[in-house]
Design brief:
The chain is built from nine helices and two strands; from the N terminus they run H-E-E-H-H-H-H-H-H-H-H. With 164 residues, it is mainly alpha-helical. It is flat and about 50 Å long. It comes from Sinorhizobium kostiense.
């Protein structure tokens, strides 16, 4: 089992204070420093509003499809309310995006060490999402053969076995 100090060093975490949280927490700095929870909420809200508008879905229709009032749904787009993970999944079903699309906008540093690397990884993910199932399986087998063992073991889903 990994202790907290080892994890802090390994992940490059830094102690940070956020007005939203009662105690200091450890975070990984992003490309523009460490965003507060409020700043991340604002990015998520702006992305959600932009995506809904780009898909031509009215706020009233989005609210109706989610089983919410327009007022309650509007809170998500104004960063006045936080959505739960089940609500995020429901939004993905309605608006046709993947959860990673929204998360990438708020925390691209999770995808790479530079903005360019992060964008390339996100682009690769989007391309993989478009592949037919049989091509995707072939690509997975190929990538597993090309990737060093320890990283493959971490990337394999729980319950899945690693094949060489």
């Amino acid at each position: 089992m990994t202790d907290a100090k080892s994890l802090i060093r390994a992940r490059g975490l830094v102690e940070t204070a956020d007005p939203e949280f009662p105690r200091p927490a450890f975070r990984q700095p992003g490309f523009d420093g460490i965003l507060t929870a409020k700043e991340m909420d604002e990015k998520i809200s702006a992305w959600l509003k932009h995506t809904r508008e780009a898909k031509g879905i009215s706020r009233a229709d989005a609210a109706h499809l989610l089983g919410l009032s327009v007022t309650v749904y509007g809170r998500y787009e104004r960063s006045e309310g936080r959505m739960t993970v089940p609500r995020l999944i429901h939004l993905c079903e309605i608006m046709g995006f993947m959860p990673l699309d929204l998360i990438f906008d708020a925390a691209p540093h999770l995808w790479g060490k530079t903005p360019e690397e992060a964008e390339e990884r996100r682009t690769l993910t989007r391309l993989i999402e478009l592949l037919p199932a049989d091509t995707m399986r072939d690509l997975i087998r190929l990538l597993k053969r090309m990737t060093p063992g320890e990283e493959v073991a971490e990337a394999v889903a729980p319950g899945e076995t690693q094949r060489g």
